[in-house]
Amino acid sequence: MFYVTxxxxxxxxxxxxxxxxxxxxxxxxxxxxxxxxxxxxxxLVVFGHTQFxxxxxxxxxxxxxxxxxxxxxxxxxxxxxxxxxxxxxxKGEMDRILTRPIHSLFQVILERMELESLFGVVTGLVxxxxxxxxxxxxxxxxxxFLFILFAIGGALAYAAIFIAIASIGFWSDAxxxxxxxxxxxxxxxxxxVDIYNKVIRFLLTWVLPFAFVGVYPAAYFLGKKEWYAFxxxxxxxxxxxxxxxxxIWNRGxxxxxxAGN
Amino acid sequence: xxxxxxxxxxxxxxxxYSSRTGLRGAxxxxxxxxxxxxxxxxxxxxxxxxxxxxxxxxxxxAGKSTTIKMLTGILEPTSGKLRVNGxxxxxxxxxxxxxxxxxxxxxxQLWWDIAVQESFRLLKKVYKVSDQQYDxxxxxxxxxxxxxxxxxxxxxxxxxxxxxxxxxxxxxxHNPPLLFLDEPTIGLDVLVKLKIxxxxxxxxxxxxxxxxxxxxxxxxxxxxxNRVVMLDEGKIVYDGELDxxxxxxxxxxxxxxxxxxxxxxxxLKSLPLTFSAEWEYDEKDQTYIAYLKEEDExxxxxxxxxxxxxxxxxxxxxxxxxxxxxxxxxxxxxx
Amino acid sequence: xxxxxxxxxxxxxxxxxxxxxxxxGILIYSINIGAxxxxxxxxxxxxxxxxxxTSIQMTTYVAIAWMARAFYFNNIDREIAAEIKEGKVAIExxxxxxxxxxKTMQGLGEGIFRFFFFSIPGMILVALIFxxxxxxxxxxxxxFGISLLLSFVxxxxxxxxxxxxxxxxxxxxxxxRAKRVxxxxxxxxILPISFYPFWAQDIMKYLPFQGIxxxxxxxxxxxxxxxxxxxxxxxxxxxxxxxxIPIRLLWTAAKKQLIIQGG
Lengths: 261, 335, 263
Known about the structure:
- The structure holds 3 protein chains of 3 kinds.
- By secondary structure, chain A is mainly alpha-helical.
- Chain A has one domain.
- Chain A is 71% helix and 2% strand.
- Chain A has helices at 2-20, 22-46, 58-78, 84-90, 93-97, 104-112, 119-134, 143-171, 178-186, 198-207, 215-221, 228-255; strands spanning 52-53, 56-57.
- In chain A, a hairpin with a 2-residue loop joins β1 and β2.
- By secondary structure, chain B is of the alpha/beta class.
- Chain B folds into 2 domains: 3-247, P-loop containing nucleotide triphosphate hydrolases (Rossmann fold, 3-Layer(aba) Sandwich); 251-319, Alpha-Beta Plaits.
- In chain B, 36% of the residues lie in helices and 30% in strands.
- In chain B, β8 (227-232) and β9 form a beta hairpin.
- Chain B is globular.
- The two termini of chain B are 34 Å apart.
- By secondary structure, chain C is an all-alpha fold.
- Chain C contains 11 helices and 2 strands; from the N terminus they run ααββααααααααα.
- Chain C has a two-stranded antiparallel ribbon with strand order 1-2.
- In chain C, β1 and β2 form a beta hairpin.
- Chain C is globular, with a radius of gyration of 19 Å.
- Chains A and C meet through α2, β1 and α9 of A and α2 and α8 of C.
C-alpha cells in the first residue's frame, strides 16, 4: 500500500516537472510515433513483394508488431534505465537513493519513469484492432483479460533483461555498451521466431526472452495452435525472469562501491 | 538505548584495478585483471553516545566518507560489526534509514526542477510523517533556518547557501535521532555558516539529536563538537577532545603583517618580547610572518609591540587548519 | 588548408581514445545486419530475385548499407546545436576559419577513423558470418569510393542545416531526431528505394536522401548497370551543389540572428 501511494506521489511530481517543458514532451511523442511508423512502413513495403513470411501473412505480422508495441511501451515508461550505470553508479546518485527508506530499484524506477512513452500503448492498440479486424479474428469474453495478462508478462520479461544488465554495474563500473546492444536484439522479438535459425530461436526464448514480448503471446490471438504452449507461458516467464533479475539486483547492491572511489 | 553508533573492527576493502599497456595487455586484461586490495577503512573501533556531537576528520582519501557510507547503509562493510540505532544499516536498510538524516554537501537531496516545498511534501510522504508532526516540527525548522521565502522556488534557482539550508531542513523532516553531515558548510559564507551552526546546536539541545559531521573547517568543530575522531589512511589516529588535540598539535599561530614603510627583517627579530618568535618574509605577498606559541598573552603582546614601533597596513591571524594539524601529527607521529 | 588537416588529425586522435566503443559498435551493427538477413531470407523464400536483386545481393546490400553508415554518420548537428546553446559559436566566429567548414572537417576526421576501425573490420566480420558477394571489378570499387564520399558530403550538409536551426528554435532536439528517422527510411538504409511503390519512388526522386545510402549500396552490390551508375553519381553531385544554397542562406540569417541576440 505504501508503495502504491509513493508511486502516485512521484507520478504527480513527474507530471508537474514535465508540464513545465511542454514542447519537449510533444516533440518526444512525435518522434516516438515516427519510429513506430517507420517500422510499419517497412512491413507494408515488404509485403508489396511477397504474400507470406514463413507462413505468416501481412496482417498477422502487423498484428504481432502492434502487440509488441504495448509491452514495449509499458517497459519504456517504467524501466527505461539504459543510462543507470552512467547516471547512478558513475555519478553516484545511488548514494542518495540508498539513504531513503524505499527499495532502491523501486526508487530508481520512480525517478526514471517516462510516462509519455505510454502513448505507444494507444498506437499498439490501434494497430492490433486494425489488423485483428481485417483478419476477422474471433474474440472470446476472456481474451481481453488474457491480452492484458500477456502484455504485462511481456513487459516484465523485457524489464527483467534490462534490470539484470543494469545490475552488472554494481560489480564492474567499467563502461559497457551492452545496453544499446540489447535494444537492437530486442527488435528480433517483433517477427516470428521461425524465420531465425535454431540457436537464435533458443536464445530469444530461454536466455534473452524477447520472443515473449511479441510473437509468442500474439500467436495465441492469431489462433496459431502450435505456439499456444509458449503463449500461455508468457506471464510465467515474465514473473520468473523478473524475480530472478530482482534477486541479482539485491545481490549487486551489496557490492556497490559508492561514488568517487 | 545509550549508544547511537557502535563500531567494532570495521573494515572496508576496495579492489583497485590497474590495466596493462598495449594491445596484448588489453587482451590479457579481458581474461585476468591485475588488482590489489586496498583497505579504505582498516579495522576501526569507536562508539558514539546518544546526543553527542562528533567531528569526523582527516585528509581527503583517509576513509572518512567510506566510513560515513557504511554508517548510513550505503555500503556493506567487508568485515567487522556495525550497530547504528540498534540496527545493521545495510541489511535493514529500509527500516534503518527512517531513523537517520543525511546531508551530503556536494550532492543534492532535493529535486532539481521542482519547488522546494514540493520536495518537502514528497519526502514527508516517503518518511510517513503525519501532518500534525510535520507542521509542529517543520514550522519551527523553517523559521529558524529562515527559508520560508524560498519554499516556492525551484532548487536550481537557489544560491548555494540557500540550498544548503533547505537540504538541512529536508534531512530533518522526519526528526531523526541521528544526523550525518558530510561537509555541511563547504563553500558557504560566514553568515550562513554561523546560522547553520547555531541551528544544529539548537536541534541537539532540543531533541538530543546525535550529530556526526565531517568537515575541513575548524570553526565548525570549535562551535559544535567536543569530541573529534581523526582518521588517517583508514585508521583512527586520534579520538578525544578538540582542545587537547589543538594544544598538542596546533602549537603554532601565524600572524601576518603588512607595513606602510619598508621594514628590515632584522629589526623585527630584535623586538623586545618575553617569549621567542620566529620571523619570515614572504616576498610574493610582501608580508612578514611571525610564528609563535599560542600561550598566555603572546599574541596580544606581539601585536602591541609591533604596532608601537611600525605603521601597519594590515594584520591577519592565521588559524591552524585541520589539514595542518593532521600533517603535523603525520610528520611527528602520535605519542 | 593546414588548419583543416589539423582538425581531421585532432578528431582522429580523439576517436582513438574511445576505441572500445567501436568494438561494441561493430557488434551492434552486426546484430542489426543479422536481423535483416533473416528477415530478407524469409521474405525471399522460394523467389530467386525481387526487383532485380538476388537474395545474396540483398544480404550484401544490407551489410554495406550499415557499414557505410558508420562512415557517413556523424553527430555534428547535435554538436552545433549544443555549441549554439552554450554560446560558444560566437567565439568560434571570431577565429580565422570557416565555422561550418571546420565542423565538416571534424566530421570527416571522425568518418575516416570509423572507416578504418569500424567499417573495414566490420565488413570483414560480417562477410565471414553471412553469404556476401564483394564486387570483383576494380572499377566498381572506384565508383563506390566516389559515391561514398558524395554520400558523406550530402549527409553532412543535411546535418549542418539541421544544426543551424538551433539559432532559430530554442530546442531543436526533436527536429534532429525526426531527421534521423527520415534519413533511415528515405535514404534506402532499411529498404532499397526500388522496393517502394512507384508513387513513393517518384516523390523520392526529388529528395536528396537516396544519395546517402541507396546509391553507394547499389553500386557495391552491382545493382546498377554502367549508365545507371554515371547517372546516379551525377545526381549525387547535383544535390551537393543544390544543398549549398539553403546552407548559405540559413547561415547568413543565423549570423544576423547572432548579432541581434548577442550569441
